[in-house]
C-alpha cells in the first residue's frame, strides 16, 4: 500500500509543471497542470468504457475498442507534449481532439441514440478551464467548435451508419447513464472551478490588502525620513555659516561649541542615511541573506569601533558579557546592523556617565542577546509601538539627539529574516533592555 501511494505521488509530481525558473504566472501554470488533469479524466473514461465494451461482447464492440485504443494513445500524447513544454500545442490539441473524439463516438461508433453527444456539451467547459480571457480567440473558437459539432449531431440526420449496433434494451440505459454522468461531471467541474476561482480571488484580495498596508507604511517612513533629514541638514548649513563668520574671531569657546554641534549633527545624519541604505537594500533590492558561522565577539567589536566616539563623548561605561568562543549562524552584516542600531539607541537615551551592558548567552540551540542601559526608559505607549512602522513614536535623546525610529524597524526586519525574535522591556527612568534571539552554535 505504501509503494502504491509513493507511485501515485511520484506520478502526479511527474505530470505537474513545477519549473522554478519559469517566467509564467501562477495562473498560467495552474492551467498547464489542468490540461494534464483533464486529459487524465478523459483517459479514465476511455478505460472505463473499454472495460464495459469488453465485458459486454468483445467481437461486437471491437470497432469501439479499436477507436478507444487510438483515443487513449492520442490523449496520452497530449500529456507527453505538455510535460515536454509545448503547452499551447497541448491545449490546442486537447480542445480540438476531445469534441471530435466525442463526435466520432456519437456518430461513427454508436450513433446518436445512446446520447454520447452530450459529452460534447460537457467538453465546452474545457476551453473555459485552460484558456485565459487574454487568449479569448482560442477560448471562443473552441466553444464555437463544440457547439457546431453538438448541433450537427443532435438536430441533423446522421451522415453514416454507426459501426456498433447496441441492442435496443441497452440504448435507454446508455442514454440515462450518459445523461447522469454528464450532469455529475458538469457539477464537479463547476464546483471545482468555483473553488479554484474563489481561492485565487481570496489570494488576490489578501495580496492587495497587504500591498496597501505596505505602501501606507512606506509612505509613512518616507515622510518621517524627509522630515528628519530636513532638520539636521538645515542645522549643518546654519552651523557652517556661523563657523565661516567666526573664523577671524578669537573666540575659541564658541568655535569649539559649533564644531561639536556640527559633528553631532553630521553623525546623526550619517546614521540615518546608513539605516535608510540598509532598509532600501533589504526591502527593495531583495538581497538574500548569507547564512554563515561568525564570531559574535568579533562582530560586536567592529560595531563598538564605529560608535567609540559617541561612547567617549557621553562618558559611558560599556560592560561586555560575550565569551570569545560564542559563535552564531546568520548573516554577518545583519548582526552588525542590529548591534549598531541597538547600541546607538542605548547611547542616545543614557545620560552622561551611564552604563550600557551587552550580553550574549547560548540557550537551547539559540543565542539570546540583550543590550541594557541605565537611561531614561520609556512609557508603555512608546514601548508597545516601537516596532510598528505606521506609528511615529520617536523621542529625543538625553542630549536632544534626534531619530526616526527607522533603526529599530530595520533591527526587527533583520531579526525576523534570520529566524529570530526581538522585544523590549522598559519603564520610565529605569532604563531599557532590548532582547533578540538568533540561531547559535557553540564551540565549533
Q: What distinguishing features does this structure have?
A:
alpha+beta; Heat Shock Protein 90; seven-stranded mixed β-sheet; 13 helices; 444 residues; single chain
Describe this structure in words.
With 444 residues, this protein is α+β, with helices and mostly antiparallel strands. Among the domains are: 24-166, no CATH class; 294-444, 2-Layer Sandwich (Heat Shock Protein 90), CATH 3.30.565. Helices cover 64% and strands 11% of the residues. The chain contains 13 helices and seven strands. The protein has helices spanning 2-15, 26-57, 62-83, 87-109, 118-122, 125-130, 136-155, 168-245, 252-285, 296-313, 332-348, 380-383, 406-417, and strands at residues 292-295, 317-321, 326-330, 355-363, 366-373, 421-426, 432-442. Strands 1, 2, 3, 4, 5, 6 and 7 form a seven-stranded mixed β-sheet that branches. A hairpin with a 2-residue loop joins β4 and β5. The two termini are 44 Å apart.
